[in-house]
């Protein structure tokens, strides 16, 4: 199914690389894969002249530190996304590494907002694990939720006077555990962004938005605590095709989960044996890679073969990965984007972590462009990508739902709802809901296009 097109990466040495995010960086009007470098520079890969080219910036590259994860969102409300880099290893001189929060755009030199006077961001006492974006106020100004090995969750936001401060305690998020994965989206709440934190050696956390930017922990009541497994990867997916978001969890050497939502009972696991079979997953991608109108699940394995599942006649079945099997790959982060603009998603997979250097991999489904598709990009009121918004596409008598990716730990996709339509050409309508409860409906949009939807 998936074909290796890694030759389209202009420079692709074997490196230790980890998290991946997709954004318009640095505000040049084109998407880029941002890759966290663990033993070398962070990389920003843009599509230029038929290849992914490394647009090296020495400030963002930051080669003296070892990055684990990256995530992007508009933290200051200027309509452009900032880049959070989660560093894990000690820096030079025996000091712990500080994370980075880069602001750039319009030809400006990147500035680290965490290195400004008055910033409430001490060097992390423990190695960081993952990061995701959260708009808890619904105002289009995001913060970054950060987990580490055994410490409390942190939530870094930009205050009205331009400082960065940890607001996790104020929000009710400062719970301690060894966090392995994160997901911020309207999973339980109707439109506000909830927070799911997958933990290692402990029950997961689920924080439900209760209003005024505060949260209650409800994992047990929601049926998502799952203390017997280590949730190393999370992704939203409509498990049963009912037009609502459910949840897939990839475990670290344990059984994977397909959590289906039930309005009375909470979430319960419906993973068939093939999906649940234990493996070491570092990332799970839920995306329509072949534009057939059904989402595929890609389990990115560490030291073992990758696995791919598709929904066929209402059942989840394993299908061949093609050239993306990577039986000896040390998969870490992964993300999808239509980076070359042809209407078909590319899948970029990073490798190595802290183990052994390996090059990046780039995969694509040949012939997928023959199927119809539509792509939807919601904007915040400031004009930035509306991470955490939910898009529903009505076509052919069914509804497909997507969440605009705010990050999941080691992967953050492009901020576009990419919806394959198979042989269906006509789209009846597109519905968008934002974290503040605002909604918009676009009737009869053309397929085969990128539809940008402004905040109402």
Give an overview of the whole structure:
This protein has 456 residues and is mainly β. Helices cover 4% and strands 46% of the residues. The protein has four helices and 36 strands. Strands 10, 11, 12, 13, 14, 15, 16 and 17 form an eight-stranded antiparallel β-sheet that branches. The longest helix has 4 residues. It is globular and about 55 Å long.
Hey, roughly how much beta strand do the residues contain? Answer: over 45%
Q: Rough shape?
A: globular
Mean pLDDT: 92
Based on DSSP secondary structure assignment, what is the total number of beta strands? Answer: 36
| Structural class by helix and strand composition | mainly beta
Give a quick account of the main beta sheet: strands, pairing sense, barrel closure.
Answer: 8 strands, antiparallel
Name the descriptors.
mainly beta; 8-stranded antiparallel sheet; 456 residues; single chain
Layout of SSEs?
Layout: E1 3-4, E2 17-23, E3 32-37, E4 43-48, E5 51-54, H1 58-61, E6 67-73, E7 82-87, E8 100-105, E9 108-112, E10 128-134, E11 143-152, E12 154-158, E13 164-166, H2 168-171, E14 176-185, E15 194-199, E16 205-211, E17 214-217, H3 219-222, E18 231-237, E19 246-254, E20 257-262, E21 266-269, H4 273-276, E22 279-287, E23 296-301, E24 307-312, E25 315-319, E26 331-337, E27 346-351, E28 361-364, E29 372-378, E30 390-395, E31 398-403, E32 411-412, E33 417-422, E34 429-433, E35 439-443, E36 450-453
Parallel strand pairs: 2-32, 29-36
Antiparallel strand pairs: 1-28, 2-3, 3-4, 4-5, 6-7, 7-8, 8-9, 10-11, 11-12, 11-14, 12-13, 14-15, 15-16, 16-17, 18-19, 19-20, 19-22, 20-21, 22-23, 23-24, 24-25, 26-27, 27-28, 29-33, 30-31, 30-34, 34-35
């Amino acid at each position: 199914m998936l074909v290796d097109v890694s030759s389209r990466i202009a420079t692709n040495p074997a490196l230790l690389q980890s998290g991946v995010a997709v954004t318009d960086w640095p505000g040049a009007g084109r998407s880029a894969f941002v890759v966290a470098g663990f033993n070398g520079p962070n990389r920003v890969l843009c599509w230029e002249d038929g290849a992914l080219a490394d647009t090296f910036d020495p400030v963002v590259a930051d080669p003296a530190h070892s990055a684990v994860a990256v995530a992007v969102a508009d933290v200051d409300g200027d309509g452009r996304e900032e880049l959070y880099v989660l560093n894990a290893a000690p820096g030079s001189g025996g000091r712990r590494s500080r994370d980075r929060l880069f602001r750039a755009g319009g030809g400006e030199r990147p500035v680290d907002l965490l290195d400004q006077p008055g910033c409430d961001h001490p060097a992390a006492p423990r190695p960081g694990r993952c990061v995701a974006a959260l708009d808890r106020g619904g105002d289009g100004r995001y913060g970054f939720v950060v987990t580490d090995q055994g410490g409390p969750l942190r939530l870094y936001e930009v205050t009205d006077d331009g400082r960065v401060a940890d607001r996790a305690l104020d929000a009710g998020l400062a719970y301690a555990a060894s966090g392995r994965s994160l997901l911020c989206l309207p999973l339980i709440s109707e439109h506000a962004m909830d927070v799911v934190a997958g933990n290692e050696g402990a029950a997961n956390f689920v924080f439900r938005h209760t209003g005024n930017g505060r949260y209650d922990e409800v994992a047990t009541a929601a049926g998502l605590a799952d203390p017997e497994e280590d949730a190393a990867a999370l992704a939203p997916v409509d498990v049963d095709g009912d037009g609502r978001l459910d949840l897939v969890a990839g475990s670290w050497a344990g059984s994977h989960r397909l959590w289906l939502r039930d309005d009375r009972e909470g979430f319960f696991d419906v993973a068939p044996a093939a999906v649940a079979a234990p493996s070491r997953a570092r990332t799970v991608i839920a995306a329509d890679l072949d534009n057939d109108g059904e989402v595929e699940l890609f389990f990115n394995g560490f030291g073992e073969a990758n696995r791919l599942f598709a929904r066929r006649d209402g059942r989840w079945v394993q299908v061949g990965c093609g050239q993306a099997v990577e039986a000896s790959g040390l998969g870490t982060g992964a993300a999808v984007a239509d980076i070359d603009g042809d209407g078909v998603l590319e899948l970029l997979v990073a490798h190595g972590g802290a183990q052994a250097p390996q090059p990046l991999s780039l995969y694509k489904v040949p012939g997928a462009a023959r199927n119809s598709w539509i792509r939807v990009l919601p904007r915040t009121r400031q004009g930035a990508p509306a991470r955490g918004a939910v898009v529903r596409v009505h076509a052919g008598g069914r509804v497909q739902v997507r969440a605009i990716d705010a990050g999941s730990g080691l992967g953050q996709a492009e901020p576009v709802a990419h919806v394959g339509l198979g042989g269906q050409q006509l789209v009846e309508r597109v519905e968008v809901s934002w974290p503040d409860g605002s909604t918009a409906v676009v009737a009869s949009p053309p397929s085969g296009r990128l539809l940008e939807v402004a905040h109402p």
